[in-house]
Amino acid sequence: MVHALQEAWRALKSGGHLIDMRPITSHPPVDVLSDGGRKRAGRVDDTVGKPDDDAADEAIANAVKFGQFEEHETHLFELSDYWNEVQGMVDYIEDRWSDSAKLPPGTIENANNFVDHASGEVKIRVTQQIMISRYAKRDRA
Amino acid sequence: MEPIRDPEEHEIEHLARLGEFEGLRVLEIGAGNGRLTWRFASLTGSTLGVDLDQDRLRDAAASQPEDLKHKTGFALAAAEALPFPPGSFDAVVLAWSL
Fold this sequence. Notes:
The complex is a heterodimer.
Chain A: H1 2-11, E1 12-23, E2 29-34, E3 37-43, H2 50-65, E4 69-83, H3 86-96, H4 105-116, E5 123-137
Antiparallel strand pairs in A: 1-5, 2-3, 2-5, 4-5
Chain B: E1 4-5, H1 10-19, E2 25-29, H2 37-40, E3 46-51, H3 54-62, E4 72-76, E5 89-95
Parallel strand pairs in B: 2-3, 2-5, 3-4
């Protein structure tokens, strides 16, 4: 991470800026949406990824501390993923998020139960908290 | 199964607002299959995406929209050893890459 930030700094022109956008550990809720409204099936356990979150935070904090970048602003926003089937969500999280998150069996069971008793079109939604920050490149003395 | 990601368009709303990409030469580190690239590249002067995963870069090239071909490209490169001279870009995007 440190080397990637150093390279980003080097590749930027004087006065350029860096955008860092990534999910933060937030126990993303899993909801089943249907004609009956929203039912909360549980949450994704993303604590597995927290050490990586912390390492990324430390890397960027050091880059700021050592004068490579200056933080201009940071925002949080929600980003939702939608599936038509519970198994689609399960497979995706196992395939793509295995390094950072896992689905508790109880959450999967709840989601399936809600889908089984739902009416109308059904969607399964997972909502992450995303942090986006802008940093200005500082020219080192 | 690939989800439908962010139909609310929160991601591009925030990226566009903070990025202020108009007319800029942008480097996206960790571009992967181009999913995010296609969302913001039209806002930039030009966008180059780099990644170490050749298969995902191949997917990105295959999904390149016709109207963005003149201002987007992809390259196989490591974030820790970018093959560009200093000061090559106006902005760098690290999305899910740090």
